[in-house]
Amino acid sequence: MPSRHVADIRQVEAKTGRALEDWCSLLEANGIGDRREAVNFLRDGYAVAHAYALAIADHCLRAGHDAYGDWQDDEAGW
To answer: Global pTM?
Structure first.
């Protein structure tokens, strides 16, 4: 995860009212697998601030790729 998101990730629940894993589950349930799509979904649909939406998207999408073992490169999926 990019270091700029570390502070954001630690504050996700306090700033958004939902745990990070809840956001990940929501993205997965809606079939969102693209970073830009995830950020827009969170920002526009749930009024999540852009910086937090980026941090959530990066964390959740990276976690999803790691679970399947197919993560190649930080830029490859985006």
So the answer is: 0.75
- State which amino acid sits at residue 44: D
Concatenate the DSSP letters of all residues of 1-60 into one string.
Answer: --GGGHHHHHHHHHHHSS-HHHHHHHHHHTT--SHHHHHHHHHHHH---HHHHHHHHHHH
Residues written for the chain = 78
Q: How far apart are CA 73 and CA 18, in angstroms?
A: 29
CA–CA distance, 61 with 32 (Å, rounded to integer)? 9
pLDDT tens series, the chain, 78 aa: 556 677 789 999 999 999 999 999 999 999 999 999 999 999 999 999 999 999 999 999 987 655 433 434 444 444
Cα 7 to Cα 68: distance, rounded to the nearest angstrom: 26
Inter-residue contact 77 to 69 (CB < 8 Å): no
